[in-house]
């Protein structure tokens, strides 16, 4: 849109609000978490565009298809747009989304890579279209100890050029970090100068940065600086609210600071400002020397044009005027306008407030918007932003209308207004109030959450049967039990950091805090190990058929096993911890304390107080008994055994207790 003389303030303000939303939605509520390793999502986006003029006879169909994706990239979408609007006689086939404005279809988008245009008229149609093919590659970079993300940008492979590359960095909104600067490979700040680059080259908000290389940026390492700040955490579903529009001016050479109330009541919070600075003067080649300063400033729009005022004759010769406008999105509690022009400039600004809204369900988001939420504001939008483990399937209004086919569109609303809407796979906005027109009630966003398939195994890769897998988020606990092969499937249904735990035999054997789900299926190697106990006599001979028990600190017997002919007992799949091992063999027992299970299989070799075992009787002889009685004791024990057996008496280990 060109802003010139005669453009109404209402149109200017509405355009600025849309500009803010486009910026924000290319931008969730949890308390700050201490995450050891912070991954930052970076999308490398390649766009190849061309304009074609096509001539279509009656009934003709023109099919557009994507070229193969370059190595390492995935197909994002194919977009076909009319250079003006697509004629009403053109039927679109294969579109997943459309762009609509003033009742006209401007463009169609396909995610499967094919779009068709069919001429339904009885006459030939000539139309000029822009074909845009988009491919994407996602890479996760780690934030270093200095709070910097270093992104290595390389030239893409043919047939793509560096000028067709866009790099978009995302710090998930539920993380307590905000973007403060970005440095080019030569060390220059790309955010400090508002005049060196076009507004389209760089877009920024506290959680997103987008660099378009069409403006001559070079390949190399770009450094994005982040600051840890609990105030930077944002909700995932919220209202964007604009109440008042302010009109001010700044004198030549003047500097003026602007602020707003930090809340507009009803749990709202000041997010920032939409600012437009403009002036009209008798034509001069001088640049618009005005800067807007703030905590984080996105130079979002620039327009300059000249126009002539002419009389019906040369009674008054033509006079040329120059009109210019700059628009900015400022995040923070204040901003300053610095006017180095030789004339006064006008400032239009709108404080923007944010309010968290809605509740998260397995099926998606339910947002009940009431009159109290929006009655005090002139414009209001519902915005939903999702992490990559969630996808928007449908948006349903309180009136039951499904509006998931539109992106960056403006739709007629109640015959008296227009409603802006855009629904992407991971974010959306919909206008819920436009001046006097509004729609309150329950908005439903149907969401498909990524399912995380987990296999819990022990240190030897054996499945853990009947383990409990738990996913914990703030206010949400989901539990699933593993099957015989150790498999369970869980799914988060709220944006944010979450914790996955595995409980086995009443002990936590795995716990990890995650920002993103790992690749699925996910094999979790749990802190579960075998304890192998070899039992032998004082003479070193193996003791078979001894009972070995492993006991927890609370006295509960976790597992028991019998020794084999080699004197070995295997206690299988023992959770990490501090245990006591108890060994019993007939009349002899032994306790081994402080057995630590952690990291790997535990091997114990224990000697019990048994010198030997009396032949025939199978009665163990303790060391002190063997030393005291020697062979005589053994002979006497055998005699007593034979006598009692002759009389049919029960024989047991107490025979040794009766010996002198």
What does this structure look like?
By secondary structure, this protein is mostly beta strands. The chain folds into 6 domains: 9-20 and 234-355; 21-232, no CATH class; 357-449, no CATH class; 452-525, Immunoglobulin-like (Sandwich), CATH 2.60.40; 528-610, Immunoglobulins (Immunoglobulin-like), CATH 2.60.40; 614-658, no CATH class. The protein is 7% helix and 52% strand. It contains 3 helices and 46 strands. The strands form 10 sheets. Strands 15, 16, 17, 18, 19, 20, 21, 24, 26, 27, 28 and 29 form a 12-stranded antiparallel sheet that branches. The longest helix has 24 residues, at 623-646.
How many domains, in number, for the residues? Answer: 6
Tell me about the biggest sheet?
12 strands, antiparallel
Structural class label: mainly beta
- The pLDDT mean sits at 89
Number of E-type strands: 46
**First-residue to last-residue Cα separation:** 113 Å
Oligomeric composition of the shown chains: single chain
Q: How much β-strand is present in the residues? A: over 45%
Total DSSP helices? 3
Radius of gyration: 37 Å
The geometry reads as: elongated
Write the layout of secondary structure elements.
Elements: H1 9-24, E1 39-56, E2 61-65, E3 74-82, E4 90-93, E5 97-101, E6 104-110, E7 114-119, E8 125-142, E9 148-153, E10 165-170, E11 177-183, E12 202-205, E13 208-212, E14 220-228, E15 237-242, E16 246-250, E17 255-259, E18 269-282, E19 290-309, E20 319-339, E21 345-356, E22 359-361, E23 364-369, H2 371-374, E24 379-385, E25 390-396, E26 409-413, E27 417-423, E28 427-434, E29 437-438, E30 441-449, E31 452-457, E32 468-473, E33 476-481, E34 487-490, E35 498-504, E36 507-514, E37 522-525, E38 528-536, E39 547-551, E40 557-562, E41 568-575, E42 577-585, E43 588-597, E44 602-607, E45 612-614, E46 619-621, H3 623-646
Parallel strand pairs: 31-37, 38-44
Antiparallel strand pairs: 1-8, 1-10, 2-7, 3-6, 3-8, 4-7, 5-6, 9-14, 10-13, 11-14, 12-13, 15-21, 15-24, 16-21, 17-20, 18-20, 18-21, 19-20, 22-23, 23-30, 24-28, 25-30, 26-27, 27-28, 28-29, 31-34, 32-33, 32-35, 35-36, 38-41, 39-40, 39-42, 42-43, 45-46
């Amino acid at each position: 849109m060109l802003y010139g003389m005669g453009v109404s303030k209402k149109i200017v303000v509405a355009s600025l609000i849309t500009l803010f939303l486009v910026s924000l939605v290319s931008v969730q509520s949890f308390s700050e978490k201490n995450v050891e390793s912070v991954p930052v999502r970076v999308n490398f986006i390649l766009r190849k565009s061309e304009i074609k003029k096509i001539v279509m006879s009656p009934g003709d169909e023109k099919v557009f298809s994507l070229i193969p994706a370059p190595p390492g990239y995935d197909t994002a979408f194919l977009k076909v747009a009319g250079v003006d609007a697509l004629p009403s006689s053109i039927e679109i086939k294969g579109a997943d989304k459309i762009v609509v404005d003033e009742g006209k279809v401007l463009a169609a988008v396909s995610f499967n890579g094919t779009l068709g245009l069919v001429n339904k008229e009885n006459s030939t149609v000539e139309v000029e279209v822009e074909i845009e093919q988009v491919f994407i590659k996602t890479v996760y970079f780690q934030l270093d100890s200095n709070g910097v993300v270093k992104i290595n940008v390389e030239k893409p492979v043919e047939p793509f050029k560096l000028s067709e590359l866009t790099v978009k960095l995302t710090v998930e909104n539920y993380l307590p970090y905000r973007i403060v600067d970005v440095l080019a490979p030569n060390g220059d700040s790309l955010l400090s100068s508002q005049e060196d680059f076009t507004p389209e080259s760089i877009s920024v908000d506290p959680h997103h940065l987008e660099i378009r290389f069409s403006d001559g940026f070079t390949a190399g390492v770009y450094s994005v600086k982040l600051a840890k700040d609990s105030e930077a955490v944002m909700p995932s579903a919220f209202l964007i609210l604009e109440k008042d529009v302010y009109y001010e001016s700044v004198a030549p050479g003047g500097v003026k600071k602007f602020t707003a109330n930090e809340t507009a009541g009803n749990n709202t919070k000041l997010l920032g400002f939409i600012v437009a600075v403009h002036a009209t003067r008798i034509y001069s080649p001088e640049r618009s020397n005005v800067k807007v300063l703030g905590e984080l400033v996105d130079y979002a729009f620039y327009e300059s044009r000249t126009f002539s005022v002419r009389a019906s004759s040369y009674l008054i010769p033509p006079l040329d005027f120059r009109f210019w406008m700059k628009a900015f999105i400022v995040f923070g509690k204040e901003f300053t306008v610095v006017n180095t022009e030789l004339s006064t400039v006008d400032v239009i600004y709108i404080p923007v407030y944010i309010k968290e809204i809605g509740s998260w369900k397995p099926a998606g988001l339910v947002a009940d918007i009431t009159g109290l939420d929006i009655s005090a504001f002139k414009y209001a939008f519902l915005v939903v932003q999702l992490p990559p483990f969630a996808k928007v399937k449908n948006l349903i209004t309180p009136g039951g209308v499904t509006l998931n086919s539109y992106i960056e569109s403006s739709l007629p609303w109640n015959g008296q207004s227009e409603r802006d809407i855009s629904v992407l796979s991971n974010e959306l906005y919909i206008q819920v109030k436009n001046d006097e027109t509004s729609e309150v009630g329950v908005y439903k966003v149907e969401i498909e959450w990524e399912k995380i398939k987990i296999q819990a195994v022990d240190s030897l890769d054996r499945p853990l049967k009947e383990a409990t897998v738990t996913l914990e988020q703030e206010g949400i606990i989901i539990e699933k039990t593993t099957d015989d092969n150790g498999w369970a499937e869980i799914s988060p249904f709220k944006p944010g950091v979450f914790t996955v735990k595995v409980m086995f035999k009443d002990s936590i054997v795995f716990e990890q805090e995650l920002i993103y789900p790992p690749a699925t299926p996910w094999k979790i190697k749990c802190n579960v190990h075998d304890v192998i106990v070899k039992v032998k006599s004082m003479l070193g001979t193996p003791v078979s058929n001894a009972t070995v028990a492993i006991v927890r600190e609370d006295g509960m017997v976790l597992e028991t096993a019998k020794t084999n002919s080699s004197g070995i007992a295997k206690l299988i799949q023992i959770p990490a911890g501090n245990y006591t091992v108890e060994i019993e063999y007939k009349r002899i027992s032994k306790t081994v304390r402080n057995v630590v299970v952690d990291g790997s299989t535990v091997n114990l070799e224990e000697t019990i107080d048994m010198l030997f075992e009396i032949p025939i009787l199978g009665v163990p002889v303790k060391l002190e008994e063997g030393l005291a009685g020697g062979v005589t004791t053994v002979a006497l024990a055998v005699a007593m055994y034979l006598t009692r057996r002759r009389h049919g008496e029960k024989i047991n280990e107490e025979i040794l207790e009766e010996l002198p």
